Amino acid sequence: MWLEKLASGVLRVLTPLGPRYLKPSLGQKLYLLWVFRNFQTLPFKVLSSRQQRLVESMCEQNRFVSMGIGVDDAPLIGTLEQRPPVPSGKIPTRRASASVPDAVAPFATDVRRQ
Fold first, then answer.
1. 12 and 41 Cβ atoms separated by less than 8 Å
2. Tally of CB atoms within 10 A around 84
3. Could you read off the pLDDT of 6-41 as tens digits, one per residue?
4. Nearest CA to 74 among 19, 6, 15, 25?
């Protein structure tokens, strides 16, 4: 069983949109087998910071496997119950808008004049 997981194992990550599957490298598989040695399912929050960084880096490297390519037959290394948080640096921050009254004031004075 361990050899099957080393050869073709995948990590299942449960997301709000459904399960996603990550294909780790051989070294990552060894490490993940150690992480999931006692449990089949773990919440993302219980992982150490090193383990969280590993999963986040796998997600950033886009190591996801398509559903149609043998994922159903691939042995599961383990399951993460929650999707890792998206790094805040990658998401464009929302720019603070000018105050609404200042933006609307010129239009309001035009309406009052007419």
1. no
2. 19
3. 888 899 999 888 888 999 999 999 999 999 999 999
4. 6
pTM of the model: 0.66
Q: Which two tokens stand for residue 36?
A: 């999931």
Question: What is the dihedral sign for C-alpha 106, 110, 111, 112?
Answer: positive
Contact status, residue 83 vs residue 16, Cβ threshold 8 Å: yes
Element spanning 106, H or E: helix 100-113
Pair 9, 29: CB distance under 8 Å? yes
Structure tokens at 4: 């099957």
Residue type, 66: S
What are the residues whose beta carbons fall under 8 Å from the beta carbon of 9, sequence distance 6 or more?
24, 29, 32, 33, 74, 75, 76, 77
Q: Interior CA angle at 68 toward 66 and 74, to 5°?
A: 80
CA atoms within a 13 Å half-sphere pointing along the CA-CB vector of 64:
13
Collect all residues with Cβ–Cβ distance below 8 Å to 40 and sequence separation of at least 6: 76, 78, 79
Q: Are 92 and 25 in contact (CB under 8 A)?
A: no
